[in-house]
UniProtKB/TrEMBL annotation:
SMART domains: AHS2. GO terms for molecular function: ATP binding; hydrolase activity; transferase activity. Gene3D superfamilies: Cyclophilin-like. This is Biotin-dependent carboxyltransferase. It comes from Mycetocola zhadangensis. It comes from the Bacteria.
Length: 291
């Protein structure tokens, strides 16, 4: 079987597909690629199904080699990528000969690259998905130097380079995200609700695949909410904006816990969650009312 051998795994590289929905009742979140659009694009470029498993490479500093000729595509973050020492384009299908080393440098814009390979990564699925869930430990282990990953059978038709690559680098400036108030907005003061939409938040370096922590003006609970005590744990979804006692909100991402006791002041629109995959520490985030 054709395989990909990791020579340098970088800070955090994992196998990801589009996740394992339907298991929240047993404590397993959907997981999957944080930037679903970038993974789907990489797969489309080389003829895979959009949900085929690829690699999510955080920050960069990754290299690998293939034991057969393969088609690959790199999407998501923006930086220098080389094959056999020669530069290759981001967001383009690329044909690599067997034994060619692929190197993905440190991201200059965005934070997470996605590497798709013809046929997809064929590690054994767990609960119907090949995704690595860092919180529950479900799925394949985080990649390390020397790992060999099996590849599936590629699309039989030869791929051709696209004439135009209309996808540019991720934003480095402020990112504006639609937000829907509730379900626990009544736990907070009206001033805090206004603050949520008027403050420019910054992504905390403590963010990860579980949640995007935001630094800014702490949100205050109302006097009535303070008298209620703690909120019983309830179901959580990706995009929930939880507010812990510090008042600094966290946007739950793909590897989020399935329950939580911190009040959810609002929820990020699902279609906008991919933006958080490419935010860099310290990058600014603004919220607008969803429509």
């Amino acid at each position: 079987m054709t395989s990909l051998r990791v020579t340098t795994a970088g800070p955090l590289s994992t196998v990801q597909d589009l996740g394992r929905p339907g298991f929240a009742a047993v404590g397993v979140s959907r997981s999957g690629a944080l930037d679903r659009g970038a993974l789907a694009l990489a797969n489309r470029l080389i003829g895979n199904a959009e949900g085929a498993a690829g690699l999510e490479i955080t920050v960069g500093g990754f290299s690998c080699v293939f034991d057969a000729d393969v088609w690959i595509a790199v999407t998501g973050a923006w930086g220098r990528a080389t094959a056999g020492g020669q530069p290759i384009d981001i967001n383009q299908p690329v044909r690599l000969a067997a034994g060619t080393s692929l190197e993905i440098g440190m991201a200059e814009a965005g934070l997470r690259y996605y590497l798709a390979v013809g046929g997809g990564i064929e590690v054994p699925p767990v609960l119907g998905s090949r995704s690595t869930d860092l919180l529950s430990g479900t799925g394949p282990a985080v990649l390390k130097d020397g790992d060999a990953l099996p590849l599936g059978h590629p699309h039989p038709e030869a791929m051709r380079p696209v004439d135009i690559s209309p996808w540019g680098p991720p934003d480095l400036g402020p990112v504006t995200v639609p937000l829907y108030v509730g379900p626990r907005a009544d736990w907070f003061t009206s001033a805090s609700l206004e603050t949520l939409f008027t403050t420019t938040w910054k992504l905390s370096p403590a963010s990860n695949r579980v949640g995007a922590r935001l630094d800014g003006i702490p949100l205050q609970r109302s006097a009535e909410a303070l008298g209620r005590g703690e909120l019983p744990s309830e179901g959580m979804v990706a995009g929930a904006l939880q507010v812990p006692p510090s008042g600094l909100p966290t946007v739950l991402l793909a590897d989020h816990p399935t329950t939580g006791g911190y009040p959810v002041i609002a929820v990020v629109a699902s279609a906008a969650l991919d933006r958080f995959a490419q935010l860099r520490p310290g990058q600014e985030v603004r919220f607008r009312h969803g429509r």
